[in-house]
Amino acid sequence: MFRSNVKNRLLVDKIMMGVVFACVITAITPLLWILGTLFYGGAEALSWEFLTQEPGAVGGGIPPAIGPAIQGTLIIIGLSSILGIPIGVMSGIYLAEFGGSWFSKQIRFFTDVFMEFPSIVLGVVAFLAIVLVLGHFSVWAGAFALSLIMFPIIARATEEALKMVPWSIREAGTALGLRKWIVTLRIVIPAAKNGIITGILLSVSRVGGETAPLIMTILGSSQFFGGLDSPMDALPLRIWRFSLQPYDEARLAGWGAALVLVITILAIHIGVRYWFIHRRKSMGMSPRFSKVGV
Amino acid sequence: MTRLIDPSLDKLSRLMSQMGDMAMECVSLAVDSYLEGKGTGGRVRELSTEITTKYFEVEDLTFDMLLKYQPVADDFRLIRSSTEISYAFSRFGRYAYDITQVRHLFGDISECKNDSLFEAAKKVKHMIRDAVLSFAELDVRKAVKIQEDEAFIDRMYKERLPKLIESKNTKCALAEALLLRYLERIGDHAVFMSDAINYIVTGKHRPTQEQISSHISKN
Amino acid sequence: MATVITPKPASSTIVGSPINIPQKKYKMVTENVNVYYGNFLAVKNISIKFPEKSVTALIGPSGCGKTTFLRCLNRMHDMTKSARVEGKVMIDDIDLYDKSIDPIYHRRKVGMVFQKPNPFPTMSIYDNVVAGVRLNGVRDKKILDEIVEDSLKMAYLWNEVKDDLKKPAIELSGGQQQRVCIARALAIQPEVLLMDEPASALDPIATQKIEETITELKNDYCIIIITHNMQQAVRVSDYTGFMYLGDLIEFRETRKLFTDPKNELTAKYVQGHFG
Question: Going by beta carbons, is chain B in contact with chain C, meaning 3 or more pairs sit under 8 Å apart?
Fold first, then answer.
């Protein structure tokens, strides 16, 4: 009978809740531990000079500064985004709205394979295609490599976000006598906006921490940005370099740089999301109706 | 597939057929009582009252069905005509009762019978039987016959009535006048009934003149 | 032409369509429309003349092709790759399927309201109503304001929402959303209005309001409505067409079709013997 095992079922329910809760704790704990360690290890290194000066000679007793590295990270993320986002979004739109043909099936397959490429391989590609051809390491090469990493993530996320928009919306737009590109641009994409933004944010976080491709393309440097044709520094590179040096202050600088990197990525995330939630609230939309992703 | 409305339609059909049988019996008894002097007044009154009760039942039932089921097409026409037909039945009962009352009020009228009355009475009995059968079988061909019979009674009514003014026997003249009047009215309602049946079957409100004239010219 | 199904002596006449209504202009005329989904013939040779300023209801059991046929009337099948339409659909003597005309331009003459209300989710009520107009290039705020007011008034929604036009449309109730969709369809000033079971997803009060709206609109528009609700067809429409398995079985004035259907299949369907 159904009534007799109610007690059992409640007990099982409680146990399962406990198990799930434990799993969540297990998943979050390392994350919090990492953040805590970073803070503990790197907070000491933070100072205005640390954040804005060039590293200078090693061995002076004070942690080498990471000014150029911060600048470099921001530049490389920005440049890669300029290259990768438009192409990624447009590919996603093409796949979602005009897909179904043999051609788009190949594109989709290609994109999926691309996503799985080890980033170091993409770094090598950029090395061969740009660094060797031009004869020197450059920011262009780095941006190119990173945009290759960003492009499939954004394309897929965009495609999925667009697919989540109900078909009835497109029908309604078409029934109003609007051309297909207007329906896509002015009606469907705004409805998929959140999913697309999420895809972009994910790709930005991903490339913000990439090291291997940068080794072979922008190489790293101790100076501030010197032109798109020259090598440049970036936080992941700098952290790696610091970790190889035997000096204590270098290690400390490494922790500090790692902390700065994590905070930067976090800030980008929170900033973009807040901008969207804040904007939606001021438009009068309640969070209940938030769409995919955010 | 049984629809929600079907049990109610069955009930309606039962009521109507009961009313039809009672109406036939009623009018037959009344006419015979007049022509043959039988004392059937009590039974006729009984039947007539019962027909009226059933008439009210039918009214309630039809409006109930309209409210609940919003019928269309055949169902709709059937229900709509049922009100007219059941009213006709109730009228048959009423006039049958009135006919028996003539004998009751006037006393012995056995010397008043004549051939034309016999004929009229026979025609009326046929008419009612035709009407009831026509409804039971939803057969419109009988409608034309009913129209003919009604025309005959109408003619007779118009012919006889003026002649009665010159009659020497006041009692018989009055009795005959009343009887003719009731027969004529029964005839009218029989025709209304046949119109209603025609509506059920064909969706049209009257059989066309052509049908009538072509049928008459054939005979 | 319409097919005759197992006639009985009493009611066997073939129901011809198109019927010719004297002194009335026809707004939309279809001739021999066939629709194929792949190899499957979903709509079979339908020719109907829809009079102007009237409401025509299309009824029939699920899967009989009503929606497929309706979608021919504004070329919605262009969106579906596997669908192929043959025949003519004419508005005021212009065939929508003629190769030489721009389908999108003429599609604006036909408004469509769908079964499930589908306001654009990211737009406010105001933006939704003017979407068809604004996205076609009209920018003047005064004109847009006027269009919003007129359309919402025609859809019987103005008084309920006039104080809060910036509210997101999806925060309205189902019935209100559907009326926003009606207003949106009316805003592009179509000549024909197509409605695919517009009230089927709504509660009875909302349904009543939609029916009232339709009854008002028919003074100006040719309206073609698909409905599963027989009583709604009786209440709202002037002409009714009964479809079954892709064929048009009967097409007559509503009152006649529902009190005295000529075709036995029609009689069976409207009385609920199947479907």
Answer: yes
